[in-house]
Every structure is written in structure tokens, then in C-alpha cells.
Amino acid sequence: MQSITKLWRGTRRLWKKLPPWVELSMLAIVALLLIALGSAILWAAVVPIPSINNFENRKVAESTKIFDRTGNIVLYDVHGAIRRTAVPLDQVSPYLQNATIAIEDTEFYNHKGFRPLSFARAAWVNLTTGSFSQGGSTITQQVVKNALLTQRKTIGRKIEEIILALRLERTYSKDQILQTYLNEISYGGTIYGIEEASQYFFGVNAKDLDLAQAAYLAALPQAPTRYSPHGSHVDELEARKSLVLKRMLVSNFITEEEYQGALAEDVKFRDRREAGIKAPHFVFFVREYLEETYGADEVANGGLRVITTLDYDLQKKAEEVVAEESPKMEKNFNATNAGVVVIEPSSGQILAMVGSRGYFDESIDGNVNVTTSFRQPGSSFKPFVYATALKKGYTAETVVFDLKTQFSTYCAPSNFSEDAPCYSPNNFDNTFKGPITFRNALAQSVNVPAVKVLYLAGIKESIKTATDLGITTLTDPNRYGLTLVLGGGEVTLLDLTSAYGVFANDGVKNPHTGILRVEDRSENILESYEDRSERVLDPQISRTITDILADNVARTPEFGANSPLYFSETTVADKTGTTNDYRDVWVVGYTPGVVVGAWAGNNDNSPMVRRIAAFIIAPMWRKIVLHAIQKYPADDFLPPAPENSDALPPVLRGEWNANPAEGVHEILYWVKKDDPRGGRPGNPSADSQFELWEYPVQLWTGTQTLPGSVPNGTFGITMPQGNSVVATGQQIAVSAYHAQPETVTNVSYYLNGAYVGASNVSPYAVTLAAPPAGPAVLRAVAETAQGSIEHTITFTVQ
User: Fold this and answer.
1) C-beta atoms surrounding 487 within 10 Å
2) What 3-state DSSP class applies to 754?
3) I want to staple 85 with a disulfide (CB 3.0 to 4.6 A). Which of 81, 195, 452, 500 is the partner?
4) What pLDDT, on the 0 to 100 scale, is given for residue 247?
5) What is the model's pTM?
6) How far apart are CA 532 and CA 511, in angstroms?
7) Residue 785 pLDDT grade (very low, low, confident, very high; cuts 50, 70, 90)
């Protein structure tokens, strides 16, 4: 009592300190709340409580429809084939009754229609998070909401709901209310009521549901589309089913033994194909968005009219091509599934979405939407990395060496192992091209140069570029290493296609969307398409990437002059991707008018035949592109502006041997990694990758005729470089060159006068541990048929 008195006195003191205008405002707000509360009480006191036997007519009258972009073709009518079979409560499995109470309203049989504490807790969560996702409603309140009230979320409507729930409890028994709830609730799509849901999902009557089946059905009503066992979020359904079982255990509805048995049960869902649905993966993609935005109740019963972005003509063509080509891909390449996305880059509008070769094909989990599933992108991720390097100042003509290279600092430069902790990736054909420009490396999708470009560009910087362009799945940059550029992260086909649309749109991003307009039952516009364009990439960089991806001459050595990637009458920029384990193949291509992305693989993640994407999926993709570019023609791409190459370091303008007197070196010798136009590095060896990259270059130079690469043109140490600086504790790669290796019988090395190793095979490579800090002298002695010849260099260890 004393504490209440103190609180009252403190409140009075605080009130007296408030400015007059604040007092008046607060009094006005309180008055309005009291008026609203009084009005609600008066309304609720006089409104008649109707029969709660059947509300089917009300629901059918408020049917939600989803249309294509013309507004004329109905893709999906939420109640177009409504199914409902009412049953008395004694014909409903006690497991289902208890599961529903456990997850929806644990105190159902104890309260009077309203739980103040639950309501207050939900209100607090809503206010503190701003999400307004918590309802705090009892089962009785949900019956009232569905039967008597609109779906709008206002304070007045909530007060009406609470008062009517209290009145309903005085009029009907608990069992009558629960029976009504179970016969009227939506279980997804056209399925209403527990009897219809039991038959639809399991082929059994509601009274015969076992515990595990009941837990699944009780999990659905909160978000029927998202939790659908025929959708893309089965893992979330599993988690919610487990939550239902846990709640039942805690509420003493089941025993520990029953709980464990239901968790372990392998439940099989029945295939009941809904009739009349067009573009099902796209429809459920849109419906999920609608449920997340407006709530499952509003989508189920709100009578919404949804005009989508889908071009149904293009959608049908894409579906036909996928259905026609997929059996061939399965037969020839063991690729059982495929998906396609088509987007208009100037708006971000989704024109077509084929989520599998067949929505109802259970053998491939066809209901799973592969366009929104996480898969590794392979080399299709490379353009984001090259774009990042261009942002740093590198050019399309920058040269790196395509040679077998060890990238792990845990392994010696001469150790070309691919096993962890080493990392020495191969190219697809296991051949290496030597010096190669960024343009040719990207156009031909060569792996080793791409890893080097990622290092030069920076991993976090490359992820930021990809994220800026629309990749949403790389949320933790610390997870990824140099494998990222070869597809080490996971993306969705929808995101990847949308992100390529930024290149197509000259560096301007339009986030992908499936909605043109949403209207309520009164034809009020709830939302409509808005231009949300944003420049995320410099136009010159975007044009350069496009210029490379459209360069058929640069691509020809790898793919041939007349590959499926080449279009003779229209310039199409495109990129393939194949994961190293051949579990995913991709191809994305674009014009300024349209971007088309395709994926093929197996939903169970099993590998395909060892072929690149150009062989497996590009023919299918090409057919869709040909149709799409006819429907959405566009002008040609703008070319990148020319650059004054004379102002660039030679290695940035394509010259890899510009200074023969210094020998041949990898790019880290010539430019600063993070400032390639800012002059040469003072100490290249300070870079942790320098020795790793230099070693194979020196091996390669040992097989080339390169005058000036050694002091006297006949014999000399090529690695490490004279007067270079080496870090303490690291392994030093040593090699030498002789103009006539057939005359050499042995090359011995002496470090600070002590013998450290020898080799009799050009380029006479050995690896040794760095000596203590300070100056070091390395001497190489070559034994030949004409006698011995030696060369000495000095370097510094620090």
C-alpha cells in the first residue's frame, strides 16, 4: 500500500512539472481512448452474437485472387476450389485438439475468453520491436475475429474482439468454440477445416490422426503458405512441429515416450494436386510475401486483388522449354532438375519464374522452388569480384599468371597440394595458360587468375559489391576465403539474376519484385510498384564487365566461336558457372532489356556428369533467351570509355615482360595490391602471397626463352630476387635458370656458406627455411659438362 501511495505522489509531482501544452495533449489522448473504449463497449453490448455453425459464404465472398501483369489471367484463386467438411468435435483426434490448444492457447479451458497477461506480453513485444507480429489472441478471440470483425489491426477493433470473446464464452461451451475453430481455420490454399486438411495432407479422417500428424497440422495455421510441406520451407515446418510437441509435453498432454516417438516418426504427406493453379512456384512466392506483409488471415479472407509482374506468355514458354529440355539433361548429364528466372533490369520486375521441371513431380521434390533455394554459384560469381578489382584501379587488360599456384600460407610454395590446409585450385581442363589478361581470364572462366583477382580485390570488398548489387545471402564475410570466387558461398538464382541486372542497367539496381498492385475488397490500393532504383556501381565499371562478358572473341578459346552463348543478331552478355564438385551449373545472360538466369542440378545435391555449364544447361537457357529478347527488345550496350593507357603501369596495360632486365614476375612485384596505380611496392616480399605467386612464375620462366631474366643470360638464381626482403619464419622458394638445361647435371645451393639443398631438374627448385633476421647470402653452383658455374645474390630477412 505504501509503495502505491509513493508511486501516486511521484506521479502527481511529475505531472505538475509538465508544460501546460503537454498536460492538455495527454488529457486529450486519454479522453479519446476513453471515448473509443466506451464506444466499443456500447457496440459490443448490443451487437447480436450470431450462430457459429458455418461461415463459408462469408469466406467465399472475400476470395483473394492473384493475376498476371495484364490483370486478365487468374494465376491463382485462393478459394477457387474451396474444400471444407465440418465434423463434430468427437470426430477429431484428441491429439489434434490438444496440439492446437498447446500451440495456440494453452489455457483455453481455464480462461473466460481473454488472457490479460498474454495480451499485455504481446502488446509489449509489439511496442518494443515495432514488428506488431504478436497477437496474444485466445482461440475464442480468433473465432470472433474470423466471424464478426474485419481483419484490420486497430486498437478499437481489438477492444471489440476482447468484449465479444467474453460474451461468446457466456453463450457457447468451450467444446463448441473449439469445434468451430477447427472447422473454419485455414490450413493453406483452398483447405479449410481439420477434416479436409487431414484428408488432403495424409489421406485419413481427422479422428484417425496420430500424434506426429496432429503436430504438423497444428503447426500450419500460423503461416499456412510458409509452413506448407509442399513449399520451400520444410525445415521451418519441422521446427514448428517440434515446438508443438514440446508444448504438448510441457502441458502434460503427452508422455516423454510419446514425445520421443513422435519426434522420430517419418511422416509421409499425401500428394493432392490443386487444380487450376498457373505458375505455382511464382504464385506461392508472391503469396508468401503477401502473408508476411498483410498477415495470413488477410490473404486467406481479405478479398485481395493482386496484380503481379508475371508475363504469362513468357512464363508458359519458359515452362515448356524446361519441360522439354530437362529429360535430355537428366539422360545425358544426370541433371534431374532445372529452374529459370527472367527479370526486366530497368524495373526489377520478375517476368517469369520456373521453380522446377514440374511442381508436382515428387521424384525430384518439384514443389521446392529452386530459384529461391541456396546453392553454390560456381564461376557465375566471378563478375562481382572482377568488378571490385576494377573499382580498385585494375583494368580489363591487367595481367596475372595462370599457373598452378599454392595460395595457402600454411604450405610451401612448392607444395601444390589441394588438401587442407593447402589450397591449390585447378582449372576445369587442368591446363594453365601462363600470362593472361583479366578480360580473357573472365571471358574464358579460368579459375587460378580469378583467385588472384579476389585476393587483389579483397574478400570483404568483393562481398560488399555483390551485396550492393543484390546478393542477400553472404551475411558473414568472415566465413569466406579465396574459394569464394569459385562459388564458395551460397546464392539464390533469383538474387543472382537480379544482380546481373545491375550490369545490364548500367550500374543501377532495381530490387526484384513480383508485385505491380495490391487492392483490397473495396478496390483501395494497398501498394503499387514504385521506382526504387539506386546507383550501386560506376557506369564505366558496369560497361567494362558487360564488354568482357559480351566479348565472343575473348570467349572463343574456351567455348568456341559458335557456342550457345553467342547470338549473331543481338549482343548478349553472359556468364556460366560450374561448381568444382559438379553439383550445380548456372548460366546468366542479359541485354539492356531483359536478364535470364538458369540453374540445373539435383535437389538432393548429388553430382552430375563432369561437364561445364555450357554443355549442360546453356542450350535450354538459349531457347528462353531467344524468346525473351524478341518480347523485350533493346538498344545495344553502351561501350566503356577509352582510357589513357600511357599513364598506367605496364602490367595494367597488358605488358607482363616490360622490363627484361628485372626478369619476369607476378603482378605483386610491380604494383601495390590496394593501390595498383600508386607506384611500385617498396618490399614485394612483405605481401604474404608474394612468394607463393612468384614460385610458379619462376618455374614457368625456367621453361621459357626469356633474355635478361638472369644476369649473364646463361645461369642465375631466379628466386628469391636479389636485394629482396623475406619475412622471418617463412619458407623460401629457391629456383635457378640455365640457358642449356640439358648440359646441367646438378645445381647446389649454399645459404650463408652452408649447404642447404640441390636439384638436378630445371628449374632446380628447392624450399628452405628463412635464416635468422639480418642480411643473407645465397649462392647457386651449377655442375655442367663444361664445368661449374655459379651465381650469388644477397637478400634481407626481417
Assistant:
1) 24
2) strand
3) 195
4) 95
5) 0.71
6) 7
7) confident
Compute CA distances 71 → 380, 528, 543, whole Å: 35, 13, 36
Q: Burial level of 476, CB count in 10 A (0-12/13-18/19+)?
A: exposed
Name the DSSP class of 593. S
Q: Give residue for cell 600460407.
A: 409
The beta strand positions in 399-514, using DSSP E, are 399-402, 434-437, 508-509
Per-residue HEC secondary structure of 510-544 comes to CCCECEEEEECCCCCEEEECCCCCEECCCHHHHHH
Alpha helices in 211-337 (DSSP H): 211-219, 234-250, 256-264, 280-294, 296-301, 312-333
- Residue 478 grid cell: 568472415
Question: What's residue 666's pLDDT?
Answer: 95
| Cα(613)–Cα(414) distance, integer angstroms | 32
Neighbouring CB atoms inside 10 A of 659's CB total 12
Query: Before 720, cis peptide (omega within 30)?
Result: yes
Q: What is the pLDDT of residue 581?
A: 84
d(CA 211, CA 225): 22
CA distance 546 to 364: 35
The CATH code of the domain at 56-281 is: 1.10.3810.10
Helix (H) or strand (E) holding 796: strand 787-797
Fold match between domain 56-281 and domain 378-631: no
> CATH topology for 687-797?
Immunoglobulin-like (2.60.40)
- Region 633-657: mean pLDDT is 93
Q: In one letter, which amino acid is 759?
A: S
The amino acid at 414: S
Backbone angles phi, psi at 205, to 5 degrees: -75, 155
Please name the amino acid found at residue 29.
Answer: I
Label residue 129 by pLDDT band (50, 70, 90). very low
The domain locations on the chain are 2-46, 56-281, 378-631, 687-797
Q: Which residue has the cell 517469369?
A: 352
Measured CA to CA, the distance from residue 271 to residue 367 in angstroms comes to 11
Q: Which three cell numbers stand for residue 254?
A: 503427452
Amino acid type, 543: R
> What is the average pLDDT score of the chain?
85
Task: Report, as an integer, the average pLDDT of 382-386.
Answer: 98
Residue reference for cell 537428366: 330
- Distance between CA atoms of residues 561 and 553, nearest Å: 7
Cell for 223? 503461416
Task: Report which of 596, 603, 512 is spatially closest to residue 317, judged by C-alpha positions.
Answer: 596
- Architecture per CATH, 378-631: 3-Layer(aba) Sandwich (3.40)
DSSP code, position 243: H
Cβ atoms within 10 Å, residue 789: 17
Phi-psi sector, 560: left (phi>0), alpha (psi -120 to 50), beta: left
CA distance 290 to 295: 7
Q: What is the dihedral of CA 469, 473, 476, 479, to 10 degrees?
A: -110
Query: Are the C-beta atoms of residues 349 and 530 closer than 8 Å to each other?
Result: no
Percent residues over pLDDT 90 in the chain: 54
Task: Label residue 531 exposed, middle or buried (CB < 10 Å: 0-12, 13-18, 19+).
Answer: exposed
Q: On the CB side of 255, how many CA atoms lie within 13 Å of its CA?
A: 3
pLDDT at 523 over 70: yes
Please name the residue ranges forming H helices in 47-186. Answer: 56-61, 94-104, 116-129, 139-148, 155-171, 174-184
Gap between the Cα atoms of 166 and 47, Å rounded:
13
Distance between CA 152 and CA 618 in Å, rounded? Answer: 49
